[in-house]
UniProtKB/TrEMBL annotation:
One of its GO terms (molecular function) is glutamate 5-kinase activity. Pathway: Amino-acid biosynthesis; L-proline biosynthesis; L-glutamate 5-semialdehyde from L-glutamate: step 1/2. ATP binds at residue 8. It catalyses: L-glutamate + ATP = L-glutamyl 5-phosphate + ADP. PROSITE patterns: PUA (PS50890). Its EC number is 2.7.2.11. The keyword Phosphoprotein does not apply. This is Glutamate 5-kinase. The keyword Chaperone does not apply. The gene is proB.
Amino acid sequence: MKHRIVVKVGSLAVTDENGGVNPSKIKNLIADLFELRNHGYMPILISSGAINSARGLIKKPDEKKMMISYQQALAAVGQPILMKTYIDTLSEFNWPCAQILVTHEDFKERKRFLNIRNTINRLLENGILPIVNENDTVSFEEITVGDNDQLAVMMTEASDADKLILLSEADGLFDKNPKEPDAIQFKEIDFRDDFLNVKIAAKTSVGRGGMDTKLKAVRKLTPLGIDVILGSYLHNKAVSRLLLHQGGTNFKGNPVREKSRRKSWLSTLVKNDCYVIVDDGASTALTDGHTSLLPVGIKKVQGKFKRGDVIQIRHKRKVLAIGLTEYDSSELNLIKGKKSAEINDLLEYIHSKVAIHKDNLLLKKDEL
């Protein structure tokens, strides 16, 4: 039986800290994946490293406002450099690969999401390794996936994979910085764990993510019934040893896997750190009445998001639900706390009478 797995590698797993691709790191990774392929696995690779591959080839700007275009230019130069190394290495194994570059918009729009799924299926059926990365050249704040941990989550759901393996410097989750001598490693964690007792260490000097983004990734997948394994790329056969439970941390998925594709699709699209805080009345209406969220019940809007993004709905410090918003963050800021009749005078275009429709809303206690 074939087992689909998504393997996400950070920048330092395939590049050098000072910049440039590291062919030996890539060869070790591919050799491991090839062996797993021969044992019935169908890997999908999420690879960071495009920006760091081109480090030093683009002059760094003095002005901070130019940093986005600098990063985009690095990605444009670095992505083909990174892919050439992958192609050259894979040719030694007679294993063809495909490049897939995506943005958050590609997963949010249902038709494009299904196109991604169909492409992945066709590639795997033909024995081709999909290599996926965020399209940093065209991404900007409103559409960016943000980090490849989030991208890995969305790709795991889209491809209907059995497991997600996240390779980082740390060999799993520890109760504090793993470099501290008394740090304790967690071997296995239940899908209901909230990680409140974990002191999260800082991210690496190169990657955009960190342990915080990895735990957010875990919390989106494990309630759906998908296992996530976090471990270090510094070991020989890094992926194989994690699948054999010889290291890392295994985040166990819900024993009852979510069967609704729409629910799992929405659950993995949630934008990190984007949410609305609702009042007591809205909280009661949502949890007891399964109603839509009205603008009048919103007290605060946090983060920058677009219409059609999936955001959290919070009451006080508790996440009540997630939902697909009918308005962007700036519009919601204008109409929060307002009755439906008042919205006409505040906005030029009225998309809906509700902020989040009940058909596009998943209550945490029921669905997540």
